[in-house]
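In this supplementary section we document a worked example of the pipeline. Step one takes a protein sequence of length 177 as its only input; no multiple sequence alignment statistics are reported here. Step two produces a three-dimensional model, which step three serialises into C-alpha cells for compact storage. The input and output of this example are shown verbatim.
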Amino acid sequence: MHTKHPNRIECMKIMQIYGTPENVIKHCNAVADASCQIAFALNNKGIYLNTALVLSASLLHDIARVSEEHWNVGADYVSKIGYFKEAEIIRLHMHHSHDTDPYKLKEIDMVCLGDRLIMEDKYVGLDERMDYAIRKAEGVKWIEDIINEKREINRILIKNIENILETSLEELILNEF
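The serialised model returned by step three reads:
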C-alpha cells in the first residue's frame, strides 16, 4: 500500500504502462487541471481538500476508458498497484452525485465536477458537456433523465462554489488553460 498519492509524472507512467490512449491521457490532464484549480481556490477560502489526491485521482479517473465499465476496470487496476483512495474515486466517478453544499465537498466531487466541465481536453462548461452525454445516450430516456438530474445538481453546486470564490468557474479554469 502506498501512503502518498502519485504525482503527475508518476500518474503519466502508470497510464503509459497500462496502455491508456494519448487522447484519454490529454483528457485526464485537462480534468486534473480544472479539478485542481477549483480545489486550490476552495482551499484558499477555508474549505480543505487534499489537492494531491484530487490531482492523482483526476489524472487516473479514465485510465481504462476504452474498456466496458471503465470505472470498475480502472479502479481494480489502480487498487492492484496500491492506490486505494484513487481507486475508490475512480470506481464512483461515473455515478457520483454531489451535495450542493460547498462546505461538504470531498475530493471525489472535484474530480467529478472537473470531468463534467471538460470535453476531451477542452473546457466547454456544464451544458455543452451534458448535452454531449445526452447525445451519447442515443435516446435512452432513463439515461437522459439521470444526466439531466446531474446537470441540475451540478448547476446549483457551481453557483454555490462561484458565490464563495467570487468568480465564475469558467474564468478560474480558462485563466489556467
